[in-house]
Structure formats: C-alpha cells, structure tokens
Amino acid sequence: MDDLDFSAKPDASAPKPVVKPSPPGEPASLYEPRLALEFFKIAGTLEQFPAGKQIFVEDEKSSGFFSKGARIYLLLEGDVALTLKGKPLELVLPGETFGEMAAIADIPRSATATARKNCRVLSLDEKAFLNSLQQMPEFALMLMSAMAQRLRRSVAKLATAKKASVAALVQKNLLDKKMLAELQQALGDPSPTVAQAGQNVLTQGAVGACMFVVIQGRIAISVDGLLIEHVGPGGTFGEMALVDRAGRAATATAEADSAWFLIAREAFLSMVKSRPAFGLALLRSMSGRVQHIGSLLRDGS
Fold first, then answer.
1. Is 187 contained in some domain?
2. For the chain, what is the radius of gyration of the CA atoms?
3. Cβ neighbourhood burial of 34 (10 Å; 0-12, 13-18, 19+)
4. Is residue 15 assigned to a domain?
5. Which domain-ending residue is among 95, 130, 165?
6. Same domain assignment for residues 121 and 152
7. What does the pLDDT read at residue 124?
8. Are 159 and 100 found together in one domain?
9. Is the residue at 24 inside a domain?
10. What are phi and psi of 253, to 5 degrees?
11. N vs C: which end of the chain shows fewer Cβ within 10 Å?
12. Domain that includes residue 98, residue range
C-alpha cells in the first residue's frame, strides 16, 4: 500500500484518538484521523451535543443523496454510542467518523447515535462534502479502505451463518452514461470483455488485479454459493481487492450474456484522485453493500 499516500501535515488541534486494534489476521486499518480532520476542516461546521443528546436515529430518512438534514460527522471530543433497537453496536471515539454510510448511499440510518459525554464534532452536508472531496479526493480512497475491511468482516459472518437464501441487492446505473463515456475515453477506449450466460467472471479467494464496470447484461455476486447481489449496466464490482489488495471476497458469474471494461489498480487510483464524482460513485456502491450485508445479518433474512 506504499503508493496510497494518506499523510497530512501535523496539526496541534488534531484529535488524539484511542487506537482500535484490528482483529487477528486482518491488515491494519488505513484510516488516518489527521487526514479526516483536514478533510472535514475544509468545509465542515462545528457542532456541540450535550451528554444524552440523540444526533440521529435509526431508520431516519427523507429522500435524495444527503437528504434534507442528513450530515456526516467527525468526532473531536467526547464519545458517541451507536445502538440499534436499544442494543449497543459500537462506540465512536475522537478522530473517527460516523453517519457516512446512510448519507452517502441514500438509505435509512442503520443505527441511533447518542452523545454519551458532551461532544464536539465537525459535520458536513452534501454541498460541503462534495466541496471537500474536490479538494481532497484521497479521502475517498481512505474511506473506501475502511468500508472494504468492514464489508469483508460482514461477508465472513454471513458465510458462517449458513443461510439458504437472502434478499439480493440490485445494483445498476451507479455510473451514468456520461461518466461511463469519460472513463472509457480515459482508459483509451478499450474493447469490452464479454462473457456468456453461466460463465464465471472471477472466483472467491483469487488475487484481484482489476475492477469491473458492467456495460451490458447482468452479473451475479455470490459468497460460498449464497447469492447476495446482482450488478447491471452502470454497476461495478471487484473494487474491494484494489483498495486493500486482499483476495476476491466473492464469486462473480454472468447471469446473461454480459460485457464490461476493466480498470487496473494504477488507473483506478488515478481516476479516484482526479475524478471526485467517480470516487463518490464507488463510495455509494460500497456503502450500500455494507448496509445491505449488515441488514441481512441483523434481520436473519
């Protein structure tokens, strides 16, 4: 991961986080509190919440990306408890972000956030988030790495649950026609790769060297034989392996005659840094997957 530069200049006001160790067998997290602070300082709003105050509640949603009132947060002081139906999920510590999954993916909040102590935060609404992302696109890479680790843990738990079937996520039109055309042009207008219905595109556990952008057909994503997602035109898959350089988390199979173009790791890193809209689209995709797999684990679907 040497070519992923997440460094930031020291800042005396940077939060001093309590480091959460990675679970055994997992690579160290790429999350960098100082980079997050610099990102939120570009356009963030300073807010304070007294102990006991609910910052947002589970299932809260209006409509649209960053729906009215939706914000993402960086905790500067205090700590925030995340709960679901009154049961504890996680404790947010200084230097950590929270609330980003639902806001970015345009889905309901999956937890309630409550200040356990008096808290100071920096918050971003949609306009401020996009402004910061344009100036510091490397934040998208860092956030993707954190989401990839979280998603791998959830996928592993789902696999051990031995479920017979689940409700599969449907992903399409993540990238619109204009963005698809821009990406193809940036890649030198490569010829699409094609597969017939029933053909395996990638295999769980294999080494990943590229991500896939679907332009025709439909791809089934499965973990240990359990179908968890369908990817249609404008959708992507395989990006997790480029973010964390771990093996493929799932198997991909063409459900219909399909076509896609490939993005290698160096091109992927370059486009995330130079095209904030592309990075944001991938963040939306990964956020949606994290929330979907999490809901499958919680509700026993």
1. yes
2. 19
3. middle
4. no
5. 130
6. no
7. 93
8. no
9. no
10. -130, 135
11. C
12. 33-130
Q: How far apart are CA 242 and CA 244, in angstroms?
A: 6
At 93-146, the pLDDT tens digits run 999 999 887 778 777 788 899 999 999 999 998 889 988 988 998 898 888 888
Per the structure, the count of domains in the chain is 2
Q: What is the pLDDT of residue 149?
A: 86
The answer to whether the beta carbons of residues 40 and 124 sit under 8 Å apart is yes
10 Å Cβ neighbour count for 183? 17
Examine residue 1 and state whether it is found in any structural domain, yes or no.
no
Paired tokens of 220: 């089934």
Task: Report the C-alpha gap between 147 and 34 in whole angstroms.
Answer: 18
Summarize pLDDT for 155-198 with one digit per residue, the tens. Answer: 888 888 877 778 888 988 889 888 999 888 988 999 999 999 99
Bridge partners of residue 253, in order along the sequence = 200, 220
pTM: 0.77
Q: Where are the alpha helices (DSSP H) in the chain?
A: 33-43, 100-105, 126-135, 138-160, 177-186, 239-244, 265-274, 276-299
d(CA 193, CA 260): 5
**CATH number, domain containing residue 152:** 2.60.120.10
Per the document, the length of the chain is: 301
- CA neighbours closer than 13 Å in the CB half-sphere of residue 2: 0
> Tokens standing for 31?
């999350």
Query: What stretch of H or E contains 119?
Result: strand 119-124
Same domain, 160 and 252: yes
